[in-house]
UniProtKB/TrEMBL annotation:
NCBIfam families according to UniProt: Pmev_kin_anim
UniProt-listed Enzyme Commission number(s): 2.7.4.2
UniProt-recorded Gene Ontology molecular function terms: ATP binding; phosphomevalonate kinase activity
InterPro entries linked to this entry: P-loop_NTPase, Pmev_kin_anim
Originating species: Branchiostoma lanceolatum (Common lancelet)
Sites where the protein binds substrate: N173
A biological-process GO annotation: isopentenyl diphosphate biosynthetic process, mevalonate pathway
Designated name of the protein: Phosphomevalonate kinase
Keywords: ATP-binding, Cholesterol biosynthesis, Cholesterol metabolism, Cytoplasm, Kinase, Lipid biosynthesis, Lipid metabolism, Nucleotide-binding, Steroid biosynthesis, Steroid metabolism, Sterol biosynthesis, Sterol metabolism, Transferase
Pfam families found in the cross-reference section: P-mevalo_kinase
Subcellular location field: Cytoplasm, Cytosol
Function: Catalyzes the reversible ATP-dependent phosphorylation of mevalonate 5-phosphate to produce mevalonate diphosphate and ADP, a key step in the mevalonic acid mediated biosynthesis of isopentenyl diphosphate and other polyisoprenoid metabolites.
Length: 198
């Protein structure tokens, strides 16, 4: 059941996309447009990494940055995260949204990876949820540094949302700046409508 009486969030924008499709790039732009005081970026991988680091005695800061360190542990983090999600599909979604920034009216969830991630926010926030898929051609992703990695790019962590989800918005991020700006204009408009309506 959606928490329709709650005053915040007024809009919950759930982003998904393949590695190097440009999720971070696009969500940063969107947050800047909406204002950091009004819009909080929440990463589902944040609590995952934090719990994983605690249980395995690892350096959380290094898991959070884009280093080789993270890649060393990626496969095991995926496996470990899957075990947790199997016990409770909303586990990381719930933890990620428990932060001081949750008082802001707009939430951007940056990295949904499984159908249960999208479903969690749709079930909880109903019409306030907007699901967004960021897409870029393989060639473009390769130019941004993507290299196919077996066990990662062919696993649920990367492919769980390839099919079977009806996205509210699809953003094509192939590198054409003006086209991206137009798509962000539209998305910003939909978000502001939700902010104004409720
Ligand atoms: N539209 C764009 N214009 C210029 N650079 C981009 C664009 N989209 C992504 N990038 C760059 O490509 C790289 C990968 O993007 P990133 O947002 O980190 O991808 P993801 O979060 O999906 O893995 C980053 O260096 C980012 O700055
Ligand atoms: C174990 C992960 O959460 C690692 C996610 O790391 P990032 O959130 O840093 O994302 P990338 O852009 O793919 O490098 C994946 C998962 O299956 O949950």
């Amino acid at each position: 059941m959606a928490d329709i009486d709650a005053e915040v969030p007024l809009a919950v924008v759930i982003f998904s996309g393949k590695r190097k499709s440009g999720k971070d790039f696009v969500t940063d732009l969107l947050q800047r447009r909406l204002g950091e005081d009004k819009c909080e970026l929440m990463r589902l991988s944040g609590p995952l990494k934090s719990q994983y680091a605690k249980e395995h005695g690892l350096d959380l800061e290094r898991l959070l940055d884009a280093s080789e360190y993270k890649e060393t542990y990626r496969l095991d983090m995926i496996r470990w995260g899957e075990e947790r999600r199997n016990q409770d599909p909303g586990y990381f979604c719930c933890l990620a949204t428990r932060c001081p920034g949750a008082q802001k009216p707009v939430w951007i969830i940056t990295d949904a990876r499984r159908k249960t991630d999208v479903q969690y926010f749709r079930d909880k926030y109903g019409t306030r949820a907007i699901s967004v898929r960021v897409e870029a051609q393989e060639e473009v992703r390769r130019k941004r540094g993507w290299v196919f990695t077996s066990g990662v790019d062919d696993a649920e962590s990367e492919c769980g949302l390839d099919e079977g989800v009806t996205w509210d918005v699809i953003i094509t991020n192939d590198g054409e700046h003006s086209h991206l700006m137009e798509q962000l204009d539209q998305l910003e408009h939909s978000i502001r409508e939700k902010q104004g309506k409720q």
